[in-house]
Structures are given as structure tokens and as C-alpha cells.
Amino acid sequence: MHPRRLSTLLSKRQQLGQIAAAIDALQKRKDADLKECVRVIQSCARLGALAEGRRIHQLMRRVGLGSDVYVSNHLVMMYGKCGSLEEARLVFEATPAKNVFSWTILITVCAQHGRSQEALALFYEMLKQGIQPHSVSFTAAINACSAGPEFLPAGRALHALLRRYGFQDAVVATTSLVSMYSKCGSLEESMRTFESMTEPNAVSWNAMIAAFAEHRRGLEALRTLQKMFLEGIRACSDVVVGTTLVNMYAKCSGLHDANAAFVKLQEPNIITWNVLISAYVQHCCFKEAMELFRRMLLLGLEMDEVTFINILGACCVPVALEDGRAIHACVREHPLASNHAPLENVILNMYGKCGSLQDAEAMFKSMSQPDVIAWNTMIAAYGQHGHTSEALRFYELMQEEGVVPDDYTYVSVIDASCANAGLPEEAHAYFVSMQQDHGVRPGGGHYGCMVESLGKAGRLSDAETLIQCMPFEPDVLTWTSFLANCRSHGDMKRGKLAAKGAIRIDPEASTGYVALARIHADAGDFQEASRIRKLMLDRGIRKNAGRSIIKLGTSVYEFTAGDQSNPRSKEIFDELKRLDKEMKSAGYDPDMAHVAHDVEAGQKEPLLFAHSERLAIAFGIISTSPGTPLRIMKNLRVCGDCHTMTKLTSKITRREIIVRDSNRFHHFKNGSCSCKDFW
DNA sequence: TTAGGGTTAG
């Protein structure tokens, strides 16, 4: 049995039951078993069980041990851990023969509850009363000074006093000083203190590394520290220190430094590997993350739930479905990872994000007790794929199963109810019921979905009113979705408003500028259009080029509009021409309006003909056997003409084509799309 | 026979 699993075998409830039983047993006895009593007090402290703690306190008083200093000290600690400072203080005051432990414990309790002034006052009162402090008393008082720069003078005074008492070599107290100086803003004093240490241990190293990471300008110093660490200058080769270094580099410097720190370590452990993989995933370097994971497999290294959770984060894109499935298979073979709810939810999410609802459904069915996150994930997945009724059915079902919906549930429910039906009334009904029947307060996400639902239905004036009335500043997503709806309904006036809103919230993104320039151009104001384009370029913002990705086997192929760089480019264009001919004979006419509306556009038909997703689809067709489904990812919204074209292609070629665009999934099958032409 | 420092994955 894994140690972590073992420790959770007894739930908190069971442990509380044991304590209660122990107190009952003690009450029945005539004599007092001091050892057993203290053991119970300690358990109460560990579990934060205030009620049980009070019962045992009562019992101690009854048997005449209420003011025994050893017992009192434990009671003070217990009340402190349970968050009742007043009771801790009362027990302390009522203890006649206070010793250095009594004082130090109360100082610690005060410091841990942010009562720094009180802690310091106690420390000096203790000295005044002639109690000889221990180095632990200093540690507690120094900690009280970590609360902020305003305590720096008090911290320095304690440092001086510590030396006078001859505790300058006490490693724990000195490590506290390293931390305290950093938290009070004085990296220099933190470094000086660390350098003064004769035998810093792993904890001291970590405190120093954390200090450098906290102060961005400490990066160079961090490199020096790493060098010392690697060369064993101060005799520390702790793997946790090495892992902390990797993590700090990933956070403060970048992947290059993190990787360099990793490869230099003699014995990275599972957590070191997890930290590095997580860093790659967070920097969106999915391919490199997968390579690391494969290396772990090849080396036969032990993996845990976190390894799987991290690496699955790299598989949440349709082109990674096969990788995701392979990792799911690894999980099934891993005894410790099965039945781990967060991991199961991540797998479920991965299938949804990869566009495979069948896999998601199978996963969901296999879960013994899906929690609210699992239900939310399914509802969101159905909504994203345009399966509104399934999403809403799951919403009903979860409540029948006794799972209480949360605010995330309603974002997905409202989003699903307006996904393709264009029925804002339904979305609005959920928006109202969420508040009235379920007590969920609407957040930015809920309002965003409502704006989207009204916008899709063409009720742009209502959407605009909602934007004006909502108690939040609309986020960039809300503005861009409103913008897209204004454009598709030809409302240029409101489109301008939305574009300006998008630019205001995210001046670094190109979407707002491009849209605004296009609206002015459409209205014939070319001067204003070119002014906006220039403004965008002056701010160093580049237009987001349309890109589509398709994965065949283990290779990933990327296409941009009009791209001829693929070695099979001629065949791709021949296939597009062939499809085009077939479509035209079936009565299809390319819709030129979409050229002007689309971000990729330039000239008319030739470029429309070669939009990135079309190239990817044609490449998929000529590279796979008939009937194979195609999975494509696009970074922008699919334009109307490509949407029509893909519908027809799915019919002509009898293939399922799944396109994940920047907004949602489109399942093209037999001439129609799951979004029912609302997107 | 009690009290103290730091850090690592979701």
C-alpha cells in the first residue's frame, strides 16, 4: 500500500470518533492517565477539533490537572491550533508556574495567527520576568517579524539579541532570519545571514532559494547559489533543494534555465520530473513535454497521479487524441492511479477537448462516483460539440443523482442552451433559475454567455443593453463574441463599439484592430481603416494569421492560407480542384462575402479556395484511406464559406470531419454540421 | 515531557 493512501484510510470523521471514545473512556476512570490525556489533547490539536478539545480541558480541570504546567502548555497549543486564541491566552494566564515552553508556545500561536505585536510583546515580557529564552523562543519571535517590512527593525533587534545570547549557530533560528529578511524586503541581509551560517541544511537552502525567487533581481544570485549547490561547496545534495531550483527557474527565468538545472542533478526524483513536465506544459511546449514523458517510460521510472495529470494537460487538443488515449492506457495499468477522482476528471476533460465524445462518454460511465467536476465537464463537452439536448439532459440527471450544481455548471448550461439553437429565452430561463432556485450569483462567465445567446439570435440591442447593465467590466471574450455576432448580422455601428471594447481590454490582441479597420473599410472610410492598421503596427501587434493543424500518424502538419510549402502541395491543390468541381456540379456557389469578413482574407476566390483548413482537409483526404475521420484544429473561427464547403466535403467523401476552431467544435457528417450553422 | 525554520506536482 502506498503511504499516502494509508494515511487517508482513516477519515477525519473516524479519527474524531476515536477521540470522542477515548475521552469517554478517560471520564469513566477514577485516576488520571496523564500520558493518555496529553495524547488526546495532541490529537485534538492535529485535527483542529475544538469541541473535543474543550471536553478534555474540562476533564483535566475536574481531575485537578487543570493548572499543571505540562498539561496547560499542551492545552494552549491545542487552542491555538484550533484557532481559539482567547482560550489559549486564558489557559496561559491561569498557569501559575509558567516555564520557557509556556511562553514560547504562546508566542508561536500569536505569530501564526498574525498577531505579531502581541508575540513580540510576550517575548520581551518573558525576558523581563527573567526567563532564560531558548533558541526556539527566538525562532517564534523572528517569525512574528516576517509579517512585513514594518517589522524589519524589530527583526534586526532580535538578530542582535540572538547573537548576544550565543545562538548565532542555531540553524533553525538562523534560517528563520533568512526568510524573515527576505519577506521584509531586505534580500541583502537575507544573503548575508545565509553566508554567515556554518552548516546550512536543506531547509536553509530552500529558504534562500525562495528568497531569490521572491525578488526578481535575485536571478543572478540564484545562479551562483546553484553553482555552490552543484559543486557541493556547502555540503548539500538534497534532492528537494535541486527540485526547488528547477521549479524556481521555471517560474522566474524560463524553460532553458529550468532544464539546465534539471540535467545537472545527479538523482532527480519523481517530483523533479513532474515539476519539469509541468513547466513545459505550462509554457505550451507540448511536444517537449511528451518527449520527457516518453523518456520516463523508457527509463522505467516510477510515475504517480501527478505525472499523468500534468502530461494530460499537453493532450487537450484534438491532434493529440492518440497520445491521450495511450496515456489513458498507461493509467489503467497503474495500480495507484486508478479511482483517483482528479485524474479521472482530467482524462474526461482530455477526451472532450480532443473532440471525442464517445471516449468521454465511456470514461464517464466507467466512473463509480462522478463528482460535480465530472458532471460539469460532460455538460461543457456536450455544449461545445453542439449537443444541446444531451448537455441539458445531463444537467437534469446530475440533480437526480444528488449532485449539487455549482457556478461552473451554470456557465456550461447557459452556454449549451444557446449553443446552436439561437434560443435566448431558454438561456435566460436558466440564468434566472440559477439565482432564484439554486442561489448561485451570476459572475462574468454567466453574463458573457447571455450576451452570446442574445447576439447569436440577432438581438444585438438587447445584448448591448446587457453589456451596459452587467455589474462587471465585460472581458475580452465577451467583446469578441459580441463583435462576431455584430458582423454576421451586419450591424456595423455596434460592431465598432465591440471592437473598441476588445481593444480597450486587450490592446495587445489583433482581433479588435483588424475588425475595426474592416468595418471602416466596408463603410468606404479607407482613410480611417488605414489609420487603425497603422496604429496596430505602431504598437507592434501582428495580425493573427490563420493556421490549421492536422495530425497523421505521429506527425503534425501545419498549414497557413495559400500555403505551398508542403511537399505534396500540388496533389493538395489538385484534390481541392477536384472537390470544387464536384461541388459546383452539385450546385454550390462560393460565397464571396466571407472573403471580406474573414481574417485570413486578401484577394477573392483563389485565397478563399486555399484557406488553411481546406488545405489541411485536402491533405488529410489524400493521405488516409477512404472513410477515415479527420481531426483538424484551427486557431481562428471557421468562415462561412469554408463551413459550407466542409459540410459538402463530408458528404462527397463520406467522411467525418471534426474541426476545433477558436470557439467550438464542428462535427461535419453527411453534409451537415453539429453546430447547426450557429457558431 | 512539551515549542521552532523551507520546499517540490494537480
From TrEMBL:
<feature type="repeat" description="PPR">
    <location>
        <begin position="269"/>
        <end position="303"/>
    </location>
</feature>
<feature type="repeat" description="PPR">
    <location>
        <begin position="201"/>
        <end position="235"/>
    </location>
</feature>
<dbReference type="InterPro" id="IPR011990">
    <property type="entry name" value="TPR-like_helical_dom_sf"/>
</dbReference>
<dbReference type="Pfam" id="PF20431">
    <property type="entry name" value="E_motif"/>
</dbReference>
<feature type="repeat" description="PPR">
    <location>
        <begin position="99"/>
        <end position="133"/>
    </location>
</feature>
<dbReference type="GO" id="GO:0003723">
    <property type="term" value="F:RNA binding"/>
</dbReference>
<dbReference type="Pfam" id="PF13041">
    <property type="entry name" value="PPR_2"/>
</dbReference>
<dbReference type="InterPro" id="IPR002885">
    <property type="entry name" value="PPR_rpt"/>
</dbReference>
<protein>
    <recommendedName>
        <fullName>DYW domain-containing protein</fullName>
    </recommendedName>
</protein>
<dbReference type="Pfam" id="PF01535">
    <property type="entry name" value="PPR"/>
</dbReference>
<feature type="repeat" description="PPR">
    <location>
        <begin position="406"/>
        <end position="442"/>
    </location>
</feature>
<feature type="domain" description="DYW">
    <location>
        <begin position="587"/>
        <end position="679"/>
    </location>
</feature>
<feature type="repeat" description="PPR">
    <location>
        <begin position="371"/>
        <end position="405"/>
    </location>
</feature>
<dbReference type="InterPro" id="IPR046960">
    <property type="entry name" value="PPR_At4g14850-like_plant"/>
</dbReference>
<dbReference type="InterPro" id="IPR032867">
    <property type="entry name" value="DYW_dom"/>
</dbReference>
<dbReference type="GO" id="GO:0008270">
    <property type="term" value="F:zinc ion binding"/>
</dbReference>
<dbReference type="InterPro" id="IPR046848">
    <property type="entry name" value="E_motif"/>
</dbReference>
<keyword id="KW-0677">Repeat</keyword>
<dbReference type="GO" id="GO:0009451">
    <property type="term" value="P:RNA modification"/>
</dbReference>
<dbReference type="Pfam" id="PF14432">
    <property type="entry name" value="DYW_deaminase"/>
</dbReference>
